[in-house]
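so im writing up the methods section and need the Acyl-CoA dehydrogenase family protein record in one place, dumping it here so i stop losing it
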Amino acid sequence: MRRTVFNEDHEAFRETIRAFIEAEVVPVYDEWFAAGQAPRDFYYKLGELGVFGINVPEEFGGAGLDTHKFEAVLYEETSRAGVNFGGSGVHVLLALPYIKMLATDEQKKRYLPKFVTGEEMWALAMTEPGTGSDVAGMKTTAKLSEDGTHYVLNGAKTFITGGVHADRVIVCARTSAPSAEDRRFGISLFAVDTKSEGYSIGRKLDKLGLKTSDTAELAFVDVKVPVEDLLGEENKGFYYLGANLPSERWGIAFGAYAQAAAAVRFAQQYVTERTVFGKPVAHFQNTKFELASCQAEVDAAQAVADRALEALDAGELTPAEAASAKLFCTEVAHRVIDRCLQLHGGYGYMNEYPIARLYADNRVNRIYGGTSEVMKSIIAKSMGL
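--- predicted struct ---
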């Protein structure tokens, strides 16, 4: 389909990323998969390539752009190759917006140069073992010391993508009790140095999919966080989190669309080469009809993802629109990838084939960033229901 979201700069970036993936990722990806994470030094390579600095101001070593279109190209190219860049997506899509929105000039000078090079990888620690989507119910606390120089952090987080390799983690913690009028009041954000005493990484979680993306449990026992590492104002963390949810949900939506497009590509290639009953699987009418239906769904998802991308870049993507895009694109990807795996037959169930890994990777899209049920609630509320 004809698209208008990308220009020559984006396509030049696409060529660079595609060549980088073929040279640096594809040959070693099976090793990453077996290890359950991308190696730490890979992030330095992404830093050298300029991936982390696209949306970082020039004064801190970045390119000074303000767009998500290069991230969109990354989603398409990693999906196309059947690979994943580990926790680097969280570093850029989730952590950077908080730094840009909340950090003081002094903090930006400390954080961003190392962010750009990959010297300091960032993650976001929001979810707790007992709370899930109920962010306001978190139990992790940060209490200001008597001398006012630091906070004392205690608690635990789980499902933290990039948590194993992270050098700094934006931790959400309660600095005050919830108010009678608003249980979301009292949460604050901290840029916590993972080398701090009392900070520990628990299990590296064994997930169904996203095997090369490290996901961890984190624990904090009397961790001293300097007041200079408070992000934004005290007690307003919940509202900061809400401000960045549309961009996070766009990312999941666009990534899901890209996975669906890749699934069709993998299936089309497989059925053209695979012979059954003396002729290629692609010659059977059922194969043609299945792939045609999948392509139609991918075309629709692409249109939705692109529209959300344009709205996001214009600063106009509403929470309801982001929820709608996430709901639609992730549900489409679920259907398309399942049908494309079916066309692979038994080989579709083997992890040596990218469709099998894609099937497992895709499943979490309807859970993280807000479940499909939460997305429906947001959309229904925007409808006045």
